[in-house]
Design brief:
With 405 residues, the chain is an alpha+beta fold. The protein is 34% helix and 23% strand. The strands form three sheets. A nine-stranded mixed beta sheet has the order 5-4-6-7-1-8-13-12-11, with helices on both faces.
Amino acid sequence: MTARILSIGTAVPPAVLHQNAVRDLFAAQPGIGRLSQRLVRAAFDASAIETRHTVLTDLADALEPGTARSDAAGPAAGDPASLPVISDDGALLSPSTGTRNDTYIALAPELSARAAREALSAASVAPGEITHVVTVSCTGMYAPGPDYRLVRDLGLPTTVERYHLGFIGCAAAVPALRAAARMCAAQPDAVVLVVCAELCTLHFRIADDPDQILAASLFADGAAAAVVSADPARRGERWLDLDRFATAVTDDGERDMTWTIGDAGFDMVLTAEVPRIIGREIRAAVADVIGDARVDTWAVHPGGRAVLDRVESGLELPPEALAASRAVLRDYGNMSSATILFILRALLSGDGLRDGETIATLAFGPGLTMEAALLTAGVAAGAGTGAAETVPTDAVRAEPVASWT
């Protein structure tokens, strides 16, 4: 029996960061050198990001007063759960790692629960029917952890099997889906809830280091959840079959993408070599999971615009092939592990989804590691079309790509 994604739910904090406003703030920081100012402007302007969401309501409100307040759940500026990151004179502060992590503990569970409730509702699955929970995050840690909190916050059975994938980085949603598929293969009546939640902006900092500048220009906050089951009776009008998975580690890149714990937040290394390595090795790596399959649609983690550009050129894809990934990057930024589920949700709900359509899914993480999956879309006979919420679907479909074998 084939495991499949029955539904995907997403959630973002209410505070919005406009890329130009954040760029100007970072470039105007006291003590920043002229070279760093040029790097800030170049990185932000080349990001292909227009807006991002953040739990840093003090920052959002300082940039554009009033934008941090919303009817959506989340702390208002000045709330104890809102991490103070900017002074009255506009200088960015540098909270300790412990303070940042305390904010993660306060805010990440609610975001996870919101995405999970949406996914459960869309799949018509009651909380009591969940048999397994797989949580994913690399931007904070605590125990009892996110898996435990979901049991409490959603009213899941206390007998639910729980697993947490921590510190795997941007690629982690794919191994989480792979684990869910393995669980369904071992237990055909399993219903697995996969939840990714990342508060990347908690680790913003001012530094002359190009890696920190690049990270500040890309990362954002968000959560996404998927309900996975192999039970054919649970299929709705649309689903995504989880057909194949593959992992590849590049020959070099171990030091070019790293994620470690520092004294003033988590430290990101993301060098300019990452897109070049991906572009050089993507064709051979993708062949392992794609084989001779025909690919109709691509869902590629937008680690940044340069990463998408290198994937496009390395695989000789037409410009429109990565439209879904570019649209999520533009509107939400890089939300680490949650991002690929945002892209898959746009495809799953899009009005162009076809029964039997194959979707190649790629994500990249520290190592440099590539995680890949081949999915097949299912659309029930007579099912109506949906409306994509994050991507203009007339720009998503790509011409089929022939096999590379």
